[in-house]
Amino acid sequence: MSTTTTASGTLNVGVATRETKVKRTDTATHWQLMWWKFRNHKMALLGGSILAIMVILSLLAEFVGPYTPQERTSQYAQGRPMGFHFIDAENSFHLRPFVYARVAKRNRVTLRMETTVDKTEMWPISFFVRADKYKMWGLFKSDLHLFGLENNRHFLHLLGTDQLGRDMFSRLLYATRTSLSIGAIGVGLAFLLGITLGGIAGYFGGMVDSVIMRLIEFIRSIPTLPLWLALAAALPREWTALQVYLSITAILALIGWTHLARRVRGKLLALREEEFVLAARLSGCSHARIVTRHMLPSFMSYMIVDLTISFPYIIMAETALSFLGLGMREPIVSWGVLLYSAQNIRSMVLMPWLLIPGLVVIIAVIAFNFLGDGMRDAADPYTK
Questions:
Q1: Domains of the chain in sequence order
Q2: Which one of 118, 218, 252, 378 is most buried, counting C-beta atoms within 10 A?
């Protein structure tokens, strides 16, 4: 409201004023809109948090794990998970976690040595202890561990041990690093192959498109599992662990690029006649620049979603091959290698804790699916 003063008095004149409020979404970039929508997806945030914890623990496996993957505790072979406690047998609370002592006794029936829990003795768990030496990421030497027992005569196996007395918790950390790295490298290679070949087929069309599409159809016509088995079985047994690691990663990438290539081809076929592509051609841009700087970024969000959803595919493939004995082999430790030792009934009955890596695989795959669902919804931030 505004007031106007005259000789006859004061006259109030109503002036219709309207303030235009600029919303935050009106000035935000596409990536900001994607993030705002993604963070509202609770299950996607949960899945991303779980995967982030897995990645951090696997990167710090030497520091977090109390033992190396191949170190053995012969007196506790096939040992049950020890866990940790804060309350002792007398219901007394301890600020410092502890595990109960283990005593080896001979079974009077089977005459086998068995380890029993001795609740009269407690082994306190210490943090930042000096124990076995390791080389962090193969670069830095250290002997500092996040937790452990200061008495070298005692042992700590939170998730138990395998048939040879190797710590399952430490091996699981190293296995997580291996399996996730295979997934990352395999998906990265498949991503590059899919974008390159799919982009060439969709942009140029004609004979090039026909040849690439026939190759994709040939690869997809072969059943996946027999193809994996055939390629993995062809690897020489005398190859080193690094050669097997790289070969398995390459095999998974060479098979997994076809889905993305078909999506990229379809998108480019729809975009190559658009006005902005024609303008780029008239301005003298090269074919590579038109594809990489103008066409691919227009649906990059969808490719990122495809990249996320492809992770479980690669991880499950490696786990299946290693479980069948055709993938990773000792001394490399992966989820499939750990599950390989639990593929017979005797191991499952006597040592059910060997199936813990399978539970980790399930959690990782579900977390990737949750993350992929959230990114798929965020890829189109304008829909409600």
A1: 74-165 (no CATH), 170-378 (1.10.3720.10)
A2: 252
